[in-house]
Amino acid sequence: MIERNEKELKLLGALVTMFFVIIKHSLYWLKKDAHFKSSRMKDVVLAMETTIISRYQKVEDIHQQILTNELYLKL
Known about the structure:
By secondary structure, this protein is mostly helical. Helices cover about 90% and strands about 0% of the residues. It has helices at about 1-35, 40-75. Keywords: Membrane, Transmembrane, Transmembrane helix.
């Protein structure tokens, strides 16, 4: 049971990471495009990027805590 949960958690972690990488990559191109547009657009994209990186870090921390708790339960 715990091994199955561990595999599911690793898969979930991989999916979340992939989701955030796609968003970050999209923001990179928006930021690059915004360079030729208004500075306001560039500020908005930078704010979005900062928020997403912050949220990703929080999700990654929670995922790490869950994996640690699962490992602790195995022992």
